[in-house]
Write a structure and sequence with these properties.
Distance between the termini: 42 Å
Helix content: 25-40%
Number of domains: 1
Order of helices and strands: EHEEHEEEHEEEHHHHH
Structural class: alpha+beta
């Protein structure tokens, strides 16, 4: 049985380092080939990233095929406090995104990666802070998840939570709220620390 993970990832650091990651992660499709959206490039290509950093990922499980993640999108580079960030969204089947990013993060020592993963099967939300191959994690408590479902139901005018769980619009809103919290979780305690983490030399 396939397990689908809904993911968002923030890549944070100096503008030049973020721009370099964006370039590294983007793969042009060969010839006139396009994907199902009509795009001629893959905005977040783990195939390409694993090739670029083959020595770092030698012990890791092979990357998913670029055709194996779908709905992959990339945002613009924007300011984040005194630094810059870029955000990606994608769905992965039978892969956990933090396990792919963790070895790759050693190749980008001046970047911090925040990964927010929602399991499509059980609805559990896990957030990871990754830097230089190290990973810290936090899971959204069930009570907090319930608050997000209640807020989403109220926003859509659905009174019963039982009905809310069966409503696609409520589900989409609740999932978005939970993933957003996963991305924001580290901000308050790490915004100051980023000055030291991102500027640290090899």
């Amino acid at each position: 049985m396939s397990t689908v993970f809904l993911n968002r990832i923030r890549v944070i650091g100096r503008k030049a380092a973020v721009a370099q990651f964006r370039t590294d992660a983007c793969r042009r499709l060969p010839g006139r080939r396009v994907d199902w959206t009509g795009s001629r490039s893959v905005p977040l290509s783990f195939e390409k990233l694993f090739r670029l950093h083959a020595a770092l990922v030698a012990d890791a499980e092979g990357p998913p095929s670029d055709t194996g993640h779908y709905l992959a999108t990339r945002g613009r580079i924007t300011r984040w406090h005194r630094y810059y960030q870029i955000e990606y969204s994608l769905e992965l089947t039978n892969y956990e995104l933090h396990e792919l990013v963790q070895p790759l993060s050693r190749g980008y020592p001046h970047l911090v990666f925040i990964v927010s993963e929602l399991c499509g099967d059980d609805g559990g939300l896990r957030s990871s802070f990754l830097h230089r191959g190290r990973c810290r994690q936090w899971s959204l408590p069930e009570r907090a998840a319930g608050h997000h479902w209640r807020a989403a139901a109220d926003a859509q005018g659905v009174k019963s939570l039982d009905d809310a769980y069966e409503d696609d619009l409520v589900r989409w809103d609740a999932e978005r709220r939970m993933i957003d919290e996963g991305l924001r979780h580290w901000d308050s305690r790490l915004a100051v620390r980023l000055d030291r983490v991102v500027r640290r030399r090899r």
